[in-house]
Amino acid sequence: MLFLKPLIIYLAAGFAEIAGCFAVWLWLKEGRSVWLLVPGLLSLILFATLLTRIDSDSAGRAYAAYGGVYITASLLWMRLVEGRSPDRWEILGALICLGGALMILLAPRSA
CA 13, CA 17: separation in Å to the nearest integer? Predict the structure, then answer.
């Protein structure tokens, strides 16, 4: 239960960041409308705002733990939005990164 709130925040931040970046991808790589940048920018603002909700004494620690969740969220995005399934190496890599994120978040620290 201790890491449920950060996990939800990190997943929401991950999808917000990916959505914002995907808007730029669609505009530049697929020739879609420049107006996609408006919701993309709003999504990136949401991403940055969500990361400030992580209970951490250091922004760097919060961002480092987010990295593992971001990788996993990216593979979920690839599957759910782009319709491509991650291969076993991508899944293994994501699990390793999630383990690192949990270690960063849950490691005992002295004050």
Answer: 6
